[in-house]
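Running co-folding for guanosine-5'-diphosphate.
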Amino acid sequence: MLFFVFSTVRYFVMKDRILPVFTHITSAEFVTSAVKPSQYPPPEFPEIAFSGRSNVGKSSLINALVNRRNLVKTSRTPGRTQLINFFLIEGALSLVDLPGYGYARVPAAVKKKWGPMIETYLSTRSSLKGVVLIMDIRRTPGTEELNFIDWLDREHLASLLVVTKADKLSKAQQNNQRRVIAQTVRRRTEDLILFSAKTKQGKASVWQAIQRIAAGDKNG
Ligand code: GDP
């Protein structure tokens, strides 16, 4: 991976493609939805998956990253997105929106299908470089998050922990919650990125980490 400065805009060179960084995303397109591997697009591009509890702000995070209001549908009816959705960014980077988990109103039968669908994707997708795990700043992570992080570590998949809705708390409270959440998930405080889809706080840091992971860095 090469990293160079072009006036004030930074670019990453991935394979033979140049990917503009931060606010300079000009092309983001929906590719396809899938429930099983035969429906996945060819594993042509480095891929980053996004995961989190329903309503955590996953769609808002992806939309903010790609400067689009509605590429990924945000919904007031949590748990409705039950498919694995693939997006292509700048014709060079694949972003995957995984179904949200842990929503009480989803019927048990539907939940039972999600687990294997997500696990199959995560354990078989050859182009997958890492997973962004999104957590709400106002909530202490539970066993679902801990188990997931442990599982990603065991699978040698890079994980990027993003703590969203930061705007809901004061700066002092944000830093405190960041420490508490880091302790709970047994990571260093500085490994967690504070983010807000409302203020765009943390957007550049999330992009930087995503692009490092896409280029093969296990630690983001
Ligand atoms: P998803 O189910 O995880 O995709 O969550 P959404 O992105 O649809 O967001 C769920 C709700 O949280 C929506 O009402 C969003 O407007 C709100 N939301 C998402 N991100 C933020 C954020 O950073 N700050 C605030 N204040 N609200 C947010």
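Result summary
The longest strand covers residues 128-136.
Strands lie at 2-6, 9-14, 17-20, 28-34, 47-52, 84-89, 93-97, 128-136, 158-164, 192-194.
Job closed.
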